[in-house]
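A protein record pairs a chain with a discrete description of its three-dimensional fold. The shape at a given residue is found from the number at the same position. Here is what such a record looks like in full:
>
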Amino acid sequence: MHRRFPRLAIVSLAACAPVVGLIMAASPAASASTHHATPSQSARALAIAKNAIEHLSIGQHSANQRVSEHATGIKGLTDVSSTNWSGYADTGSGFTTVTGTWREPSISCTSTTSLAAFWVGIDGFSSSSVEQDGTLDECYLGTAYQYSWWEMYPTNSIQVVGSSVASGDSISASVVRSGTSYTLKVTDSTHTANSFTTTQSCSGCANSSAEWIAEAPSGSAGVYPLSDFHSWTESGATVKTGSTSGVISTFADDNITMVDGSGNTEASTGGLNSSGNGFTVTWLRST
């Protein structure tokens, strides 16, 4: 099956990287690998972030590229590469539901600022709109900070909700559309303060794809280094378009590998499991 490979409109998390850097600057770094700010620190950090959002630029992203079959083997209906996404995207029309579950990965930090986001969403693969939610991890001065968030791009920038996500937390995320109404939900069963449900509207969203993605977020200077998350396993994924409900493999699916500007693999996406509803992304390098 031959399909056109559109330019990735992955602008959704581009706004978050400089913001998170400011969040980190508002809190003193700790020597432990994972740090959760006190209530007063969190309030100050979020106030700085909300102010900074107004001044952010959206990063640009390169086109998808074919991955040669003889070099990698075909793991999805189509294999493509991206400079900031790794995971799977289903393509078609009229998507109404996407869900996924995972254990929040363990993050190994160095002194280099780096980021990794894990999310599910509708749109973004072949459209300029994206409706998404999930978790975000940043390494700043050797410390890992972890959040829950949602975004309806281009209506708003990333909306941070919880700041006590921790490695090993049981996370489920979903985006459900009814007409022009989108319900975005993240549940952290381990630390429930990070859980949320919000309903937003979009009359012009394309609803042309569904995604399960590990992302290296971008800022105005380009793609940030990818935090070492070791591996991220997405499981129990479901998707619906029209009257058809299924799993990732039910629809035309793209296996996405993250590469740097020289073509070196940063994060490798494995094949779908036997149920067609899960896969593992493996971290290989930061840049």
